[in-house]
Amino acid sequence: xxxxxxxTDAIVHHALESGKHVFVPYLHRNPLPPSADVPARVMxxxxxxxxxxxxxxxxxxxxxxxIDPATVHERQRILGGPDAHHxxxxxxxxxxxxxxxxDIHPTDGSIRRLGHGKxxxxxxxxxxxxxxxxxxxxxxxxxxxxxxxxxxxxxxxxGEVPVGPLDQxxxxxxxxxxxxxxxxxxx
Length: 187
Fold this sequence. Notes:
The protein is α/β, with parallel strands linked by helices. It has three helices and eleven strands, in the order H-E-E-H-E-E-E-E-E-H-E-E-E-E.
C-alpha cells in the first residue's frame, strides 16, 4: 500500500469505460455549526464527468485523486447543496470504502470496519440513508470494504475491530488476494 490507501484506479477506469456513473469523495466545511453531533468537515460524493476528468484530478497527501473545490458547483452531488445539479435524482448503488482494519464479528458474522477515525464515511452514509428513506424509490446502498489481506483480522486472537454506535456494518469485504468476505445472510 504505497500511499496509505488501497489504490482504486483500475476500478474507476473500468467503471467509467463501462458507462457507469462514478462518484468520488469530496471533503468540505460543514454548512451547519459544529457541535458534538455535527462535525466541522463532512464528505459528499461528486460525480466524475469522464475518464479524462478523473485523470486530471490532483492527488492529495494520501495519494487519493481529489476534486478541485472550484469545480464542485459544476458537478452532480449525492447530498446536494445550493449549487447542485439534479442531486435529488442522484443515488448510489455501491460504496467502496477504505479502512485501517476489518474483521468479522465472532457471534453474528457481521463485517466490521475501522476507518481512519474522522467518521467521514459513517456520517455520509447516515445522511445518505436518511435521503434515500425520504424518497419514494429509496433503496439502501451496498457497502463494501477494500483491503489488503494484512488488514483483515481473521480470528479474535488477532484482535477485534472496535465499533461505535454510528459505525456501519459492511455488506462485504474485498481483499487484495481476491478473496471476498460476506456476512452469512448475504452468501
